[in-house]
Amino acid sequence: MLPLEGVKVVDLTRVLSGPYCTMILADFGAEVIKVEMPGTGDDSRAYGPYVNGESAYYMSINRNKKSITVNTKDPNGVELVKELIKKADVVVENFKPGTMEKLGMGYEDLKKINSEIIYTCVSGFGHSGPFSKRPAYDAIVQAMGGIMSITGPGDGQYTRVGASVGDITAGLFAAVGTITALYHKNKTGKGQKVDVAMLDCQVAILENAIARYLVNGVIPQPKGNRHASITPFEDFLCKDNIKVMVAIGNNGLWKKFLTVAGREELVDDERFNTNPLRTQNYEELKPIMDEIFMTKTSDEWYEQLVAANVPVTYVNTVDKVISNEQVVAREMIVEANHPKVGPFKMADTPIKMSETKGGFRTPAPVLGENTDEILRDYLGYSEEQIAEVKAKNIL
Q: Which Gene3D superfamilies does the protein's record reference (predicted)?
């Protein structure tokens, strides 16, 4: 039995932040009913790449869910969704604040039909504050939330993080909030609203950048691939013109590295014998490190530093990531058998539990694949009632 088995979730989300949250819930057993617009479905169904007409983007973040199509622009469709929510434990949405209220499905509305409902909402700026009603995308919150200002090759050269961390961190925090609310409900019988803002999540993950500014008043700037507070902690070009990433986070690792490098005399160099000094004297240390790494090939550095237990890696491209022996051993790439696509590979859950194995069970649903099943098994509709609903053209 999976830990969230028996939990019923009505998923009104689309694209990334909300679907990522509900995928996590589904990975650990929640029954997630994804409500999609007839004909088009989740916006991400229109995002490539495509396999046999199905979006790989959509399939990668909607596994283990069921899909029902309901036109929520029609009052009859709204009433049908409310029927689903009456029987649910959780509803998740990621519309701009105010949208659900206009449909009569805001938290205050839904509490009246299901007093114990957990209402998780993910939005750009949250359901309070002066920016609440503004639209937002990942790039907007990365820029506004500060993470772009500390990412890039150097001062003033800002770069968006390649993965959609604005959306994904919001999805992660929303899943944590939802599960926490479920735990509270199990103890008290009370539901609640879980309000997650993408901007808040970006602020929450700035960690040492905020600490550094609040302590010394200096505005953090991009440092390329080096760490602002730990040295040496970056990538270096080797003799064969290939870079390796090295993370020397303490003095013990510094000594091990110098032994491998054959530069033991630097252990007692007063400029570099503590991490704060190495960071303070970075401009003096950097050319020395560059010279050291040019003495061996990337393979030699990798093998020798691994043997010495010094953190090191190549900078892997995605093709090398999915074939990495550690990634394979941890079963992070799984294969689904999609009804329209056939075999399809995707990343699985990174949460490994000893007793309740979560992750992939069923592929992402075809649009509306489970409509009849949900009406019949979840709402108890007869075949005649299903036909009546279909006649209203809301499915």
A: Crotonobetainyl-coa:carnitine coa-transferase, domain 1 (3.40.50.10540), formyl-coa transferase, domain 3 (3.30.1540.10)
The yes/no answer on whether domain 8-205+339-391 falls in CATH 3.40.50.10540 is yes
**Residue 89 and residue 117 in contact, taking contact as beta carbons nearer than 8 Å:** yes
Catalytic residue chosen out of the listed positions 167, 195, 200, 348: 167
In the structure encoding, which two tokens stand for residue 259, read together?
A: 């032994």
The answer to whether 299 and 251 have CB atoms below 8 angstroms apart is: no
Q: Alpha-carbon distance 220 to 215, whole Å?
A: 12
Distance (Å, whole) CA 213 – CA 219: 6
Q: List % helix, strand, coil for the chain (3-state, nearest 5).
A: 40, 15, 45
- Using a 10 angstrom Cβ sphere, with 0-12 exposed, 13-18 middle and 19 or more buried, the burial of residue 250 is exposed
Q: How far is CA 186 from CA 43, 91, 105, 181, 344, in A?
A: 34, 16, 24, 9, 37
φ/ψ (deg, to 5) at 380: 75, 25
Residue type, 288: I
* 31-36 vs 65-69, strand pairing mode: parallel
Q: How far is CA 204 from the centre of its chain?
A: 14
Q: What is the mean pLDDT of residues 246-273?
A: 97
Is residue 281 over pLDDT 90? yes
Cα separation, 18 vs 390, whole angstroms: 28
Segments making up each domain of the chain, as ranges: 8-205+339-391, 233-316
Q: How far apart are CA 395 and CA 391, in angstroms?
A: 9
Residue-wise pLDDT tens digits, 231-253: 999 999 999 999 999 999 999 99
Q: What is the mean pLDDT of residues 208-225?
A: 94
The yes-or-no verdict on residue 213 having pLDDT over 90 is yes
Instruction: Reply yes or no on whether 377 is catalytic.
Output: no
Instruction: Tell how many helices (H) and how many strands (E) occur in the chain.
Output: 17, 13
User: Any idea which residue has 């020395």 for tokens?
Assistant: 288
Between CA 251 and CA 272 the distance in angstroms is: 10
Q: How far apart are CA 367 and CA 120, in angstroms?
A: 23
